[in-house]
From TrEMBL:
Keyword Transferase annotated: no
Domain of life: Eukaryota
Organism field: Leishmania braziliensis MHOM/BR/75/M2904
InterPro entries xref list: CALM/Myosin/TropC-like, EF-hand-dom_pair, EF_Hand_1_Ca_BS, EF_hand_dom
Cellular component terms per the entry's GO annotation: myosin II complex
Name of this protein: Caltractin
Sequence ranges assigned to domain EF-hand in this UniProt record: 6-41
Keyword annotations: Calcium, Repeat
GO molecular function: calcium ion binding
SUPFAM superfamilies noted in UniProt: EF-hand (SSF47473)
Length: 258
């Protein structure tokens, strides 16, 4: 957790360096330069566009989730305010000698041990003439309807890349790139373990057999042959280089995530 906080601080610091005008956004060219500063790797334009699309979608989902939580809290607060307990004691309005009298309070029925009547508050309203009083007494008050409508209004964070990339999107770009790079490093390490020492730079059936024996992994000849099937590898040779191995693993991982 602490390392994650430090990483985000580093990302923010690099972003501020390239945000020379303090506008809160940097250009795509600056994003590429900033990525190289942090990761030491250069990215192509097509790769950068994919990273931006992923980052914008990730930030938009985060903001939608936060907005949804805020809307739920607001709706809960409004519901509590509109509940009968929050509306106060009932009130009764009567007309006496042309004057409107309002009584409010809680009226309790007498109990067996004695009468228990709550104190009523009496408030005199403005005088009314008999005709108006009669009209008021005979009229039926319109019912009051309290409705609570809760809207979830997520804010879209999808930006036109020509408008620049803000800190939130830039942070997601960097984290995505670092995660991808770490996985590629793991694949490179795995490839080195499987690499055929007689044919450097390639994994062969023989090197897979050797690795399986050393690790105690039980692989049949059919399973090994399937690994090097041209329909699986996409190459006609009986050996796989690092690039092909990495592509195969990335495709398999993407299929698992989807």
């Amino acid at each position: 957790m602490t390392s994650s906080i430090f990483l985000r601080e580093d990302i923010k610091e690099v972003f501020s360096i390239f945000d020379e005008d303090s506008s809160g956004a940097i250009s795509m060219q600056d994003v590429r330069r900033a990525l190289y500063t942090i990761t030491g790797q250069r990215v192509t334009r097509s790769e950068l566009l994919k990273l931006i699309a992923f980052a914008q979608d990730a930030v938009a989902k985060q903001q939608q989730a936060m907005q949804h939580q805020q809307d739920q809290v607001t709706c809960l607060q409004r519901s509590k305010m509109a509940s009968p307990e929050a509306q106060g004691p009932p009130s009764v309005t009567t007309i006496t000698d042309g004057e409107v009298m309002s009584f409010s309070g809680n009226i309790r029925s007498p109990s067996q041990t004695g009468a228990s009547i709550s104190t009523l508050s009496v408030r005199a309203e403005s005088p009314m003439n008999p005709q108006a009083a009669a009209a008021t007494a005979g009229s039926t008050p319109a019912p009051t309807v309290r409705s609570q409508i809760c809207f979830v209004s997520p804010r879209s964070h999808l930006l036109d890349s020509s408008e620049g990339i803000d800190l939130d999107v830039f942070e997601q770009i960097v984290l995505r790139k670092l995660k991808h790079r770490n996985y590629e490093e793991e694949l490179a390490y795995t490839f080195a373990l499987l690499e055929d020492k007689s044919y450097l730079g390639f994994i062969t059936k023989e090197s897979v057999r050797r690795a399986a024996t050393e690790t105690g992994e039980a692989l049949t000849e059919a399973e090994i042959a399937e690994m090097f099937d041209p329909l699986v590898t996409g190459v006609s040779t009986a050996a796989v280089d690092l690039s092909t191995f990495t592509d195969l693993q990335l495709k398999a991982r993407k299929a698992e995530d989807s």
